[in-house]
Amino acid sequence: MTIVSNASKNVDASDTVQWHALEVQEVLQTLDSHENGLMAKEAQQRLNANGPNVLPEPKTRSSWQRFFAQCHNVLIYVLLVASVVTALLGHWVDTGVIIAVVLINAIIGFVQEGKAEDALRAIKHMLSSQALVLRDGKRISIPAEELVVGDIVLLQSGDKVPADLRLIKIKNLQIQEATLTGESVPVEKDSHSVAAAAMLGDRISMAFSSTLVTYGQGAGVVVATAGHTEIGHISAMLSQVETLTTPLLRQMAGFGRQLTGIIIVIAALTMVIGTLLHGYAISDMFLAAVGLAVAAIPEGLPAIMTIALALGVQRMAGRHAIIRRLPAVETLGAVTVICSDKTGTLTRNEMTVSNVATASGGLFDITGVGYDPHGDFLRDGEEIDMADHPVLTELTRAALLCNDAILKEVEGVWQLQGDPTEGALLTLGIKSGLTLHFEYEAWPRTDIIPFESEHQFMATLHHDHAGQGVSYIKGAPERIFAMCRYQRVGVNDEQIDTAYWQQQMEIMARRGQRVLAIASKLSHLDHQILTFKDVAQNLTLLGLVGMIDPPRDDAVDAVKQCQSAGIKVKMITGDHAVTAVAIGQQMGISDGNHVLTGHQIETMTDEELGRVVDDIDIFARSSPEHKLRLVTALQANGHIVAMTGDGVNDAPALKRADVGTAMGQNGTEVAKEAAEMVLADDRFCSIVHAVEEGRTVYDNLKKAILFILPTNGGEALILIAAIVMGQMLPITPVQILWVNMITAVTLALALAFEPPEHNVMQRQPRNPKEPILTPNLLWRIGFVSVILMVGTFGLFLWQRGQGVDIQYARTVAVNTLVLFEIFYLFNSRYISASILNKQGLFGNRYALMAIGLLVLFQLAFTYLTPMQRLFGTMALDLATWGLIVLVASSVLFLVEIEKYIVRNRTRLTRYFS
Q: Which listed residue (32, 151, 159, 341) is catalytic?
């Protein structure tokens, strides 16, 4: 990257400059900038020269590439060859219909895939939306995309860093860099230079793009934007990770190849039989072989697959799961393991005080979750009167006043600005009955000692309007204990009992809670400056508070749903093992006896990790790098893995997972680009909803295949039987294409709208290696194909025996075949269940609409003069229609009998043995 300076010279700001190792003035001089910011004109020149501050779009296929990719299917290849052969033989109608079929398939797939990509773009927010900068010496807010190298950016708590900055001023600045480094604890920043060889996480003089300011304030000069940032570098590395194909694509590719081979062999044998046995001309038999190939090829299947997947995308989007790639819909249905982050996905990402311990009252339970300040104080399950516990009132007042967070209600939702721990303490104070504004006015703050990791506490000095002063201190229990001499008991102070407090700490720790100690010390009116010496000793301990990020209620239910569906849920978190186990037990993920830490993972070989990964459901102190190893190990054990992640370093694991799942609200753009699915609400239950939809889509695909293939099989058997018996073809190739396309567009498409079956989330995950066409389904396809062949060909022969015209007999055959399919559609709505089950015979209104539409099409096919000329049909009388309905309805009863026998095979075998 180059920078255009006021002097019209180029200053090298490439990635080779170690900005963290330079002093502030040297950085400003190198970038030709100033602490008061750039001039607006200069900034515009740099923006024009270097481009906007946006991550480069990943390389995508062109529209033409996407369109032609829809034809990348072996079945379509055979159709294209058939179109060329028919054209060479001068059968232009057949050629035109075949090409039209291929184009319709390609257009449908192209449009639906484009809609899926548009859905992602709708939720995509590059970097942060606004940035506060100094321009012409004034503070202004500009779109983050307009930032340039040399801009001075002002940061405060809650901001998302909009570019890579070299910090020039800081005030208690802490930045959460987990999205970049995987470090869960906010990093304290400094404006002084560090060693040039410092690792990324140790460059405390830098603020990196897409990280989050959690505390304090600061200012920094932009040293890199867009793809030159650290987040941009990782984005560029993603192409190095191998992407796996999906089970359905693998199965359908294999099925297509096998089907093509079988069709070609049968067509060739049929041509030989017709030529040698019956003396037909080779050219005639070649056309018959083409007709057989067209009959046997399920040309509507690719379109139905695409539409079913696209419908799944739309339904999932309505349930907060945005699918980026169509095949991921089906893959979700095969998921056997979900690896989930804890914070914000399984839990609320809202720290909540669950327990308070005092010297006189013991341990109190606090109800309510999140920042909504509605809840009660309980002891032994009974609600208490706060007036009977003055220590609790004093402790909650300290929690309010020794606090820099802001909690406010916006449109009925309580929102926090500041540190989550302090938000939990504010909520505790309001639950106790205190009023924020009243306490702030009654006890205004005089001075503060901000929290720093070196001294592990925060202290504030307050004076009431009568001149009485008090200091409140909160911090790490071990540190506060060492500063306390007394403990509050009722309204009196007694010698501190450290053993008692250690016991209370252990109780809270076993519950997975983070523990803070709160103390106080009386002061006087003249005490206006708070020093470390003032609070170093003789404090009075008010009590302990235990807080935890509670599980989401919907996530607990979703975990149970996964377990009933045979899906393992594994929690991967950067938290300590005790906290992880506590949350895991509350959610029903683990019994707490097995947990693996990041350190233990690092000491294991891949083989050792693979042996234990199935049996362990809690992974604590884990980094994004560990996620990649866990995904790989689970896949090596045969699992289909869904993995959640939001950080930049999660991207390789997301890309490796079968269904990488990024967070839409808190996830980085890099994570979203690497994922197959983006959760718009960041909730675990949305993954489970997506799995349910995935299973439904796979069911519907199987139903569509189970419906389409017998049609093709019946048509092929009809032609083979006619050729072997020396009869005229009952159905012409162009009529076959009409039947295949019109029934695929109406009846088969209706199956894509089938609702989930009632037991869809009570089944075990299907074996990913299991073929989509199981022996039972192959039997059904063959059974129905024979029914269709016998009924259609038999009625054709009977009509010919009555001396009717060949066109009339063929019209009867086509309509018989179509009505067979209408009745068989009701069978196909349930693969094994009866059509008279709880969901009913008419539970899919789209199926009824499709039947009505198809009837209209067939009436036009039979009676409209242009259609009669194009397809060689004739008008039928009412008696013939009655005969067609009688024959075609037989499939409904025969298949239901077959289903009953299959469902009750064991019981029937025992009965007749």
A: 341
